[in-house]
Amino acid sequence: MRAAVWHGRRDVRVESVPDPTIQHPDDAIIRVTSSGLCGSDLHLYEVMAPFMTPGDVLGHEPMGIVEAVGTAITNLQVGDRVVVPFNIACGHCYMCEVGLQSQCETTQVHEHDSGAALFGYTKLYGQVPGAQAELLRVPHADYGPIKVPAGPSDDRFLFLSDVLPTAWQGVEYAAVPEGGSLVVLGLGPIGEMACRIALHRGIEQVIGIDLVPERLGRSRSRGVEVLNLEDFDKQSDLVGAVRSLTNGRGPDAVIDAVGMEAHGSPAAKAAHSMTAIMPNSLAEKLMKKAGVDRLAALQSAIELVRRGGTISVLGLYGGMTDPMPLMTLFDKQIQIRMGQANVRRWVDDILPLLVDDDPLGVESFATHHLPLANAPDAYEMFQKKSDGAIKVVFNP
Ligand SMILES: NC(=O)c1ccc[n+]([C@@H]2O[C@H](COP(=O)([O-])OP(=O)(O)OC[C@H]3O[C@@H](n4cnc5c(N)ncnc54)[C@H](O)[C@@H]3O)[C@@H](O)[C@H]2O)c1
Ligand SMILES: [Zn+2]
Ligand SMILES: [Zn+2]
Question: What is the pLDDT of residues 344-395, one digit of tens each?
């Protein structure tokens, strides 16, 4: 089969790799019809290179048609249409039972002290072959895949694999009180969907912040108040502008949908660049022992949120000793919640919003549909945010 394969920093190639096969009785093989490209893939494209191995198949946002099932599978049949969550979970351990599927105790990657295994996501998360491919082996298919009806286009359901539950969890963890306000930092696919969900769920004031004009424009067109980071010389000016929109106090909650590659952290950018030129074994140690994240967005969140407010971190961070302003966090009495989305936990809440009308606008959410063969260019385009790329979907 053909697949998008990682070969090095900014080096993704589409190649022939062996077809996956059933290896366990609870496996299924999916013929992938759509597969998203995610901001999380961009971290692998460059900064997380020390944790990648040339030959790794990328991708974790698939849907498709069941092609084969193992002998233990009774919930799926060949020909079923399914969306596959990006985290691999068993459905019956303690963590799965309490709705923390991204911490599944059956699939945790003990070797690296990591949570549940993920498709296409570094050795830290199990080095499971990913979903930007024609075929995907799905472990624990007795639990993960979400059956969806035939008829509507793939884009109706595809974002259940990651974007929708991630954004949903972000809004849930933000815990905005009735009549309250929310700032969303970063209006990529995740932040923008978080804004849509927040407005849909009746959060009164939603303010989005980014620096890419098309992204700001798209959120504005859906009723989000937007601020362009580039209009503020200093962080304090941004904080002032947000306070003046939120009763002088700051928002009840801030979602960080930016993560480790935030714009505006020059020193940490140098650390990222350094890991790029070091041998992998050293860079891996550096990333595990040092603060390497570009913390600009998280620091903004801490400054922006009102005293006693909540920060909900969706953006991915990778360093181990990142300096955190503990004095401010303590003094402002801030609560922080974070983590990979527990995809299965939110599916029943979200699915009804996808079947009849389309209140979240998922059908027109993707800006680009491309054949898998275009993956090398698509990664570059998405990283550079060129050609208005906000969400890219591959159709293998
Ligand atoms: N928690 C999870 O389960 C989960 C799931 C999916 C993605 N993610 C993470 O969410 C983050 C966003 O993903 P995405 O697909 O939307 O990616 P993206 O890279 O397209 O979006 C990030 C956005 O942040 C903006 N930005 C950069 N610096 C900023 C700053 N200082 N202030 C405000 N905005 C800034 C960028 O212009 C961009 O639009 C990534 O870190 C990704 O890894 C987490
Ligand atoms: Zn993703
Ligand atoms: Zn489990």
Answer: 999 999 999 999 899 999 999 999 999 999 999 999 999 999 999 999 999 9
Share of the chain above pLDDT 70, in %: 97
Per the structure block, which two tokens stand in for 139? 């472990």
Tokens of 38: 């995610």
Fold type of domain 2-162+342-394? Quinone Oxidoreductase; Chain A, domain 1 (3.90.180)
Residue in the block written with tokens 């603060």 = 291
Which ligand is the nearest neighbour of the Cα of 235?
A: 1
Q: Which residues pair with 15 in a beta bridge?
A: 3
Q: What is the mean pLDDT of residues 84-89?
A: 98
- Model's pTM, two decimal places? 0.97
The finding on whether 238 has its CB within 6 A of some atom of ligand 1 is no
Question: Best mutation site among 43, 218, 316 for ligand 1, i.e. most ligand atoms within 8 A of its Cβ?
Answer: 316
Q: Does residue 133 sit in helix, strand or coil? A: strand
Protein residue closest via CA to atom 39 of ligand 1: 188
Q: Which fold has domain 164-338?
A: Rossmann fold (3.40.50)
Domain ranges of the chain: 2-162+342-394, 164-338
Q: What pLDDT, on the 0 to 100 scale, is given for residue 95?
A: 98
How far away, in angstroms, is 256 Cα from ligand 1 center?
8
Nearest ligand (C-alpha, residue 96) = 3
Q: Residue 261, Cβ neighbours under 10 Å: how many?
A: 24
